[in-house]
Every structure is written in structure tokens, then in C-alpha cells.
UniProtKB/TrEMBL annotation:
Coiled coil: none annotated. Pfam families: GST_C, GST_N_3. Residues 89-219 form the GST C-terminal domain. GO terms for molecular function: glutathione transferase activity. This is Glutathione S-transferase 1-like isoform X1.
Length: 223
């Protein structure tokens, strides 16, 4: 019997990436809200489970681990009927892995969470221009990836967990920098394609909440 518990928060992009994966695999799970904006991830009980105090975190029976990328790959390997979302083919998987590491290190860590920490967590009213440039650079990279071989999805011609990962952060980053359809036609088309998927419902509301919080915060970009 499947016994999954996901710890997360809907505005959190990596939580949404995992929720899209769970929906795609049609897996039932218990959802435990951990409000990182109220520092609930720093409670002794949560720290004991996850000393890195991040969401999302997954429990599968006695197994427990965190990081959205590790969670998505695990869920597909363990529960999917086929390998479509995380291909076994060495080259296809290498492309998916590259995109996942790119999301983790470049898009989320360098661009999205850096500015979000300033704006939402620390309440800073001035944000250095470099933080905006990091977002623009992330958009540039994704446009280039999609353009390289005219792929429909982020790691080739089939939908994978790399799409769930990147759409969760990019649909949140639009809170800071809107996507110019003339400069980023492939990126825009890919986002529209993702929005058409039934599993996108797992991303839509959380992204809306995230964008609303950023819009409410008053900050300016320092030149
Ligand atoms: N690379 C991680 C990032 C996880 C992460 O930083 N999550 C944020 C919320 S979006 C968090 O838990 N922040 C609270 C903290 O670090 O204390 C993943 O993909 O799961």
C-alpha cells in the first residue's frame, strides 16, 4: 500500500513541482502544510526530520528525504508505469538531469530564492540590479535550450520532471520580471503548453499566491 506524506507549502515552487509529479502519477498522499513564511520549518519536530529545514520533504512509509529533484526522480522510478517522465535512456536522462541541476543551482538558488529572501523573508526595500539580471539570464538560458533543437519540452520532445521543475520556478519569477513574448517566443510558447496540461492545476494557485505576495511587498531596484 502506498503511504506518502508530502510536507510543503503551495506558494513554494519546488513543492508545486512535486505536486505536479504526484498528480501526473495519480498518487494519493497526505499533505502537511509547513508555513516557511511563519518559520514553521524551524520547529524542533521539523528540524529533527529535516535538519536543512526546507520544503518540500517526502515520507514514503519509513523512508524520508527532501529536495524536489530527488523526490520527483524517486516517485517516477518507484511508482510510474513507464519511464516517460524520467527516461532510462542514458542520454535522455542526462538531459533531464542537466535541466534539474540547472533549475536547482542557476534558476532557483541563484535567481529566484536570492531575490525572494530579500523581498519576502527579510523585507528589504532595495534590491541590487544584479538580482534582476540573474532572472533575465535564467530566461535567456531557457529560451536557448528550447531553441537549440526546437524542442517542445524542456529536455526534448516529451514531457519530463524537468518541465515540472522549471515551470514551478519560472511561473514564479514573472513576479519580478515579466516575460517579453518578442524576446522569448519559445519560452512563452512552452509556458502556454505547460498551462494546458491538467497537472498544471497543481501549480496555478500556488504561483498566483507567490506572485501576489511579491507584488504586495514594496521594493525598488537599486541602480
Ligand atoms: N533545492 C530545494 C530548495 C528547497 C527550498 O529552499 N525551499 C524553500 C521554500 S521554496 C524553503 O524551504 N525555505 C525555508 C528554509 O530554507 O528555511 C528543492 O528543490 O527542494
Amino acid at each position: 500500500m502506498v503511504n506518502l506524506t508530502l510536507y510543503g507549502l503551495d506558494p513554494s515552487p519546488p513543492t508545486r513541482a512535486v505536486k505536479m509529479t504526484l498528480a501526473a502519477l495519480q498518487l494519493a498522499y497526505k499533505y502537511v502544510n509547513v508555513n516557511v513564511l511563519k518559520a514553521e520549518q524551524l520547529s524542533p519536530a521539523y528540524l529533527q526530520k529535516n535538519p536543512q529545514h526546507t520544503v518540500p520533504m517526502l515520507e514514503d512509509g519509513p523512508a524520508r528525504f527532501w529536495d524536489s529533484h530527488a523526490i520527483m526522480a524517486y516517485l517516477v522510478r518507484k511508482y510510474a508505469k513507464d519511464d516517460a517522465l524520467y527516461p532510462k535512456n542514458f542520454y535522455k536522462r542526462a538531459l533531464v538531469d542537466q535541466r534539474l541541476h540547472f533549475e536547482s543551482g542557476v534558476v532557483f538558488a541563484h535567481a529566484l530564492i536570492s531575490i525572494t529572501r530579500m523581498v519576502l523573508f527579510l523585507g528589504q526595500t532595495k534590491v541590487p540590479k544584479e538580482r534582476i539580471q540573474a532572472i533575465v539570464e535564467a530566461y535567456d538560458f531557457v529560451e536557448a535550450f528550447l531553441n537549440q533543437e526546437d524542442h517542445e519540452y524542456i529536455a526534448g520532445d516529451q514531457l519530463t520532471i524537468a518541465d515540472f521543475s522549471l515551470i514551478s520556478s519560472i511561473s514564479s519569477m514573472v513576479a519580478y520580471v515579466e516575460i517579453d513574448p518578442v524576446k522569448y517566443p519559445k519560452l512563452r510558447a512552452w509556458m502556454r503548453r505547460m498551462e494546458q496540461l491538467p497537472v498544471y492545476a497543481e501549480n496555478a494557485e500556488g504561483a498566483r499566491l507567490f506572485i501576489a505576495s511579491v507584488k504586495k511587498a514594496k521594493f525598488t531596484v537599486a541602480e
